[in-house]
Amino acid sequence: MLAPLSRALPLLVLLALAALPAMLSPYLMDLTVKILVSAIFALSLQLLVGTTGLVSLGHAAFLGIGAYVTVLGSPQGEGASLWWLLPAAVAGAAAYALFVGALSLRTRGVYFIMVTLAFAQMAYFVFHDTKLGGGSDGIYLYVRPTLALGGVQLLDLENKRHVYALVLASLAFTWGLLALLLRSRFGHALQGIRVNEARMRAVGFRTYGYKLAAFVIAGALAGLAGCLLAIQDGVVNPELLSWHESGAVLLMIILGGLGPLRGAVVGALAFTLLKELFASEGLVGPLAAHWQMTLGFTIIAFVALLPRGLVGIRWRKAATP
Amino acid sequence: MDLSTFLVQCLNAIQYGLLLFLLASGLTLIFGIMGVINLAHGSFYMIGAYLAFALAPYFVDQFLLMLLVGTLLAAAFGFALEWAFFSFLYRREHLQQVLMTYALILVFEEARSLLLGNDVHGVQPPAWLAGSIALGELMSYPVYRLFASAACLVVAALLYFVVNRTKLGMMVRAGASNRDMVRGLGIDIRLLYRGVFAAGVALAALAGMIAAPMSSVYPGMGGGVLIVCFVVVVIGGIGSISGALVASLLVGFVDTFGKVFFSELSGIGIYLLMAIVLVWRPEGLMKRGH
């Protein structure tokens, strides 16, 4: 009874989300898009951390590169075509992921954490210190891209509803792709690497190649999220690549729960709402100015009390009759 | 580049490298012995710098005493912090350590903003270190920077002596190579951990206090330095103090001369150095055998 329901759940959520814009205020619409983009970003990291067991603390670099490619690739006077802009953003992020992955996967454990962080910082410095992307102020996306097919304009991303549709479709695509991957032989190999890499090697898998492939796919999907983020915000700056962002997305998947895809989505939702809640003056009063403090203590309490994440709560209740 | 410019840059590189060593040695000790990855290490550097700013009015002519008091305060703070937050992280995965220490950064930054505000401050070097020495005909070098290098060297020598020549150091080294065996031999590992952690915090804070008169004291100053420390630890090899020393100096030279020759892209230099080391020796330059 429960199993078919939980399998249909993603589809139901998707339908509900598709119907949402009709009843949302502009503020809630923006917030929802933010959550959906975060969900794509968190899903991309889930493949690395939750599935393969590779803790990367530099994932924001790929988000940032995707965002910068989107803005730098858009001409100032007219909207670029999404047909090539989106693939370019994804390819840019994937290319840097290939470079970082090839080097950082030579290390493991805590080294891997530090090396990914350091390479993300390197990308941060490229955008922060050179004039390539407007330096520390960042650059604006003057005209958002459009999507046309055979002369018919399908999407004009100056329109918020079109952005919403694009983001929702991208989330569905990401979820579908990862769900397929996890069921494939490749996905099983990645899970095997997380559980026991030495044994995977012993039975003949070249684990380096598998891990590198996972790293590049995760980077590419983060680039997709970055492209969407740039389109939504209309501005990019180096802070997108900062390690605070990398920490935040790691937090999302841990908050939601490591491993299952829904953990990433639940985590993105919970994290974004928590941040919004802690920074809202109407709800928490004078504490709002110090939301980082509240967030920090919440994380500490969370680590101490709920090591399995939000998805884990339901899990545990279901497991004990 | 003439000789005196070269000399000045060398001195700068050594000074920066030694300062990094104070930070990185604490980080590598804490990781090597307790197995905890501590993202909040940069915050201790920031706390040290703000400590120098806060204590300066009370110790007008006693700079060395101020460093001592500040270091002791930081050590006490580290002791309490280990007890409150870190002691239950040892058995957890790296991921949760990352998360917890990330949260601590947020808390420290906000606490700093509540207590001392978000302004950028300057700290004056003490009067007896304020001048500068002439180098050649045109160049001069500030005395305080020489003092900073010397102070770091003294601390490094002290650290080397304690770790390699005393019984305490023996326990620390034993704890780094085999935790369970040390516990089996009846050494109070919890106290040892607490002490090592306190020492790491004190070293980072001392680095911050020494750095305060050279750079301004500003919010977020811990973040950048933390990542440079990670680079040092990766290059040197985790848990190796001599590796940390070599790597710190290497990073100091690459960064300083990178700024001279490639001003705009200088930020990338040390990461490229790290990439090269990763290709060549992924375990770090001085990784001990297992």
Q: Distance N terminus to C terminus of chain A?
A: 16 Å
SS element count, helices of chain B: 11
Instruction: Give the termini distance of chain B in whole angstroms.
Output: 45 Å
Q: Strand order across the biggest sheet of chain B?
A: 1-2
Strand order of the largest sheet of chain A: 1-4
Strand content of chain B: under 5%
Largest sheet of chain B: 2 strands, antiparallel
Largest interface: A-B, 43 and 43 residues
Order of helices and strands of chain B: HHHHEEHHHHHHH
Report helical residue fraction of chain B: over 70%
Question: What is the N-to-C order of secondary-structure elements of chain A (H for helix, E for strand)?
Answer: HHHHHEEEHHHHEHHHHH
Strand content of chain A: under 5%
Mean pLDDT of chain B: 86
- Overall pLDDT level of chain A: 86
Estimated helix fraction of chain A: over 70%
Assembly level: heterodimer
Count of distinct strands of chain A: 4
Biggest pleated sheet of chain A: 2 strands, antiparallel
| Broad shape of chain B | globular
The assigned structural class of chain A equals mainly alpha
